[in-house]
Amino acid sequence: VAFRIFGGYEPEGATLTGVVLADLGMADWLAVLLATLIGFGLARLARLPSPHILGPMITVLLVNQFTDFHAQVPDPVSAAAQLVIGVNIGAGFTGVRVRVVANILSHGFVVGLIMLAVSIVMALALTGITEFGFPTLMLAYGPGGMAEMTLVGMALGLDVAFIISHQVGRFIIIMAFAPFVYHRWQGPAENDSDQSSG
Question: What is the reported pTM?
Answer without folding.
Answer: 0.52
